[in-house]
């Protein structure tokens, strides 16, 4: 797994675009904010909703903060699982937030969602305002997830819960296996690390939440496995979520000299074989829940 960590690259760019708000990070957001990425987030959320949202249902009337809501892909499922909850969704990207509002209103018109442009490190809310906080695929993009967790803990009321869902690219198991496919996945991990994130964060959630002062921290791996007997998962998970995410960093991988076009294309071709007849793909997500102590 160490072959994936590659934290030595320095790909930091200049000021963040208007999407990033220029608030706190030094580098580009690895997935970007393209229409393709918005579609990928929607495919990902819809394909994995049963797996990832199972067990998350908030009482009617409770105040729930979703941080890093992006284009609203998870907000839709939060609202569906918790009818009557009062959701507040924030993201630092104004454009994503506008898309999220439109997306959620079209799919869950009765949902109660308030939208705010904000950086999760500097939330415009008072101490203990929320019963629950939810973050999905966000901490993995932050240079200091511990600092982010402290900011989320501040706005939670004592006894309130924090739910964090992250992936971990070290959990990928492929058939047919291919060193070339693992190499391109490694490039995605390296680029995310160079942008200040960590695509291997899932495995670290338990100590992270405990160190940030949460009690009763429980982490449960949520394993996704796709083969020809599950065509919807092959399409939704293997192709449209995972392969699409790796393919999206092609230009960054080439321009930074991580690989050549020929090596990249060979790795992607091998990765695609896992979504063909006879191929299989396995990935583990990690879902953590912690409680803010009463005193
Ligand atoms: C991979 S997307 C996930 C979006 C959504 N949670 C989902 O699962 O579909 C990560 C999101 O986190 C947002 N984000 C990253 N850093 C942030 C920060 N410091 N404050 C607020 N949002 C942030 C990005 O703008 C992006 O929309």
UniProtKB/TrEMBL annotation:
One of its GO terms (molecular function) is S-adenosylmethionine-dependent methyltransferase activity. GO terms for biological process: methylation. Gene3D superfamilies: 6.10.140.1580, Vaccinia Virus protein VP39. Residues 65-163 form the Methyltransferase type domain. Signal peptide: none annotated. The keyword RNA-binding does not apply. It comes from the Bacteria. CDD domains: AdoMet_MTases (cd02440). It holds the Pfam family Methyltransf_11. InterPro entries: Methyltransf_11 (IPR013216), SAM-dependent_MTases_sf (IPR029063). Keywords: Methyltransferase, Transferase. PANTHER family: METHYLTRANSFERASE (PTHR43591). This is Methyltransferase type 11. It comes from Streptomyces tubercidicus.
């Amino acid at each position: 797994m160490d072959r994936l960590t590659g934290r030595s690259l320095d790909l930091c760019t200049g000021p963040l675009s208007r999407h990033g708000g220029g608030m706190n990070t030094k580098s580009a957001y690895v997935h970007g904010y393209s229409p393709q990425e918005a579609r990928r987030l929607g495919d990902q959320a819809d394909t994995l909703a049963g797996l990832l949202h199972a067990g998350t249902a908030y009482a009617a009337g409770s105040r729930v903060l979703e941080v890093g809501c992006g284009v609203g892909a998870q907000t839709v499922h939060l609202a569906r699982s918790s009818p009557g909850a009062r959701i507040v969704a924030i993201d630092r990207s104004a454009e994503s937030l506008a898309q999220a509002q439109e997306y959620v209103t079209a799919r869950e018109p009765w949902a109660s969602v308030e939208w705010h442009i904000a950086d999760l490190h500097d939330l415009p809310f008072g101490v203990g305002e929320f019963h629950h906080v939810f973050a999905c695929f966000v901490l993995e993009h932050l240079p200091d997830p511990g600092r982010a967790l402290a900011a989320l803990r501040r706005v939670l009321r004592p006894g309130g819960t924090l739910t964090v869902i992250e992936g971990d690219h070290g959990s990928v198991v492929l058939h047919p296996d291919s060193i070339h496919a693992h190499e391109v996945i490694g490039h995605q991990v390296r680029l995310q690390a160079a942008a200040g994130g960590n695509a291997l964060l899932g495995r670290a959630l338990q100590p992270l939440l405990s160190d940030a002062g949460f009690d009763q921290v429980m982490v449960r791996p949520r394993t996704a496995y796709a083969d020809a007997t599950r065509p919807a998962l092959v399409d939704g998970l293997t192709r449209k979520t995972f392969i699409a995410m790796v393919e999206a960093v092609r230009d960054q991988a080439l321009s930074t000299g991580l690989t050549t076009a020929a090596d990249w294309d060979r790795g992607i071709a091998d990765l695609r074989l896992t979504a063909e007849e006879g191929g299989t793909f396995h990935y583990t997500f990690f879902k953590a829940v912690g409680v803010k102590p009463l005193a």
